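Extended Data, panel c. Modelled sequence:
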Amino acid sequence: MDLVLVHLFPDLLNLYGDRGNLVTLRERARRRGIHVVVKEVRLEDDLPADGDLYVLGGGEDRQQALVARALQQHAGTLRAAVAGGAVVLAVCGGYQLLGHGYRAAEGQQLPGLGLLDVTTEHPGHRARRLVGNVVARCTLPGVGSLVGFENHGGRTRLGPGVQPLARVRVGFGNNGHDGTEGAWCGTVFGTYLHGPVLPKNPRLADHLLTLALRRRHGDVRLQPLDDRWEEAAHLAAAARAGLRLRR
């Protein structure tokens, strides 16, 4: 089997090791004998239309402003890919730009792609940042708990067109009020979890890989991997946040 991974703006959106999400997807696929092609997209590049899974990380407001303009130029290609079954994973700043838009702390309005029915607003520099370890219960079947680290000023509100990716047990999540973390709709997923998120959440990584492979290869069932170290990292992250979990 073949798999095309597209890494969007890795030089600008790589807070807290978000590149590790791409590495995790690539290696979990290769360990199963899947041929992986990785395509990196920078500001001056065209967006490949043949991606099976598109990955965006997080960035500060300055980087987000640059990326927001570039994403608008690629909007048609990315929307068509999603309509054809491609998967998107976006973290923090990337997640905010998948929504309808992001209003930065200084009041600048950054346009979003509208792939997720969410809106984000930064209440200003005097407002408390939402920072710390997170443990949440994922809404996707078979994934269980999610762990990670959040650090964001933006408050994201979910519209009726999406589901929360998880329900927070420890941490702030999307806005610190409604108990939700991240969002998903169809094959598009957004989250505030850094760390990066996928190495310590192998079940989420495999969920994304399965969806991406089905775009090209039909009803795919992934072979189990020996995840003893990944699961140990998951439990250790939860314990650091104050919860003892069983997996």
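The chain has a mean pLDDT of 96. This feature is highlighted in the accompanying rendering.
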